[in-house]
Amino acid sequence: MKKFLSAILIAAFVFGGGAVEAKSLWVDNGGGISLYSDKKARNVGDILTIVINETTTQTATKSRSNSKSGSVSVGTGTGIFDFIKAFSASGSDAFKADGSAVDTNRYSGQITVTVVEVLPNDNMIIEGTQSIWQNRDEHKITLRGVIRRDDVSMNNTVLSTRVADATLKFDGKGPLNAKQRQGILTQIFNFLF
Q1: Cβ(158)–Cβ(48) under 8 Å?
Q2: Rounded CA gap, 45 and 177, in Å?
Q3: Is residue 96 classed as helix, strand or coil in its secondary structure?
Q4: pTM
Q5: Three-class SS of residue 172?
Q6: Are 79 and 5 in contact (CB under 8 A)?
Q7: Is residue 86 within 8 Å of residue 72, measured between CB atoms?
Q8: Per-residue b/e over 138-171, b at no fewer than 16 CB within 10 Å?
Q9: What is the pLDDT of residues 148-165, one digit of tens each?
Q10: What CA dihedral angle connects 159, 127, 140 and 104, to 10 degrees?
Q11: How far is 152 from 5, CA to CA, in rounded Å?
């Protein structure tokens, strides 16, 4: 019986290819990521979340004024100019305008974006769009910018204040958004005046 088992093992080794391959319990990642490192976005196609927390305030105050005045007087004519009667004239013009405007905007939320390019200095260009539909109204957020790899937190998020060359666009369309725009006549009057 022992000879028979030995013959089967030798035949399996000879005819089975002979190569024995050991399998690891850990996933082979090609040595790119350590077992102890975080899984942060670092390559094209990786995704991460941008935490939007932006506040903008604009204040403008303008004041303009100008004035001018003038007067003229002519005495009575003599001799051949005795038909000229004495008269005087004066005039003045004044203009004053004051205006002020305060505009405060606050945006908060989150948008998940994709790494579209990794620059030679390891900075990453990110881009993403989020579209939310509610009652036939679309609310759309588009974000594009450059982030540093060091600014990506352990939970794979980046603050919007850390995005360089950021373009953050909020847009919408639908019945509600259409009612918030000025009408055609108002736009024409604003253009003319």
Answers
A1: yes
A2: 33
A3: strand
A4: 0.51
A5: strand
A6: no
A7: no
A8: ebebbbbbebeeeebeeeebbebebbeebebeee
A9: 988 988 888 999 889 999
A10: 40
A11: 59
Domain residue spans of the chain = 47-192
Residues 6+ away with beta carbon under 8 Å from 166: 143, 144, 145, 160
Give φ, ψ of 179 to 5 degrees. Answer: -70, -15
Residue 4 has pLDDT above 70, yes or no: no
The full DSSP string for 29-77 is: -TTSS-TTS-----STT-EEEEEEEEEEEEEEEEEEEEEEEEEEEEPPP
Cα–Cα separations (whole angstroms), residue 63 to 74, 98, 142: 38, 4, 38
Expressed in percent and rounded to 5, the helix, strand and coil fractions of the chain are 20, 50, 30
pLDDT at position 125 over 80: yes
β partners of residue 141: 130, 170
Q: Residues 74-122: pLDDT tens digits?
A: 677 666 666 667 767 777 878 788 888 888 878 788 889 999 999 999 8
**pLDDT for 70:** 79
Rounded to whole angstroms, the Cα distance separating 95 from 66 reads 5
pLDDT level of residue 144 (50, 70, 90 thresholds): very high
Helix (H) or strand (E) holding 118: strand 87-118
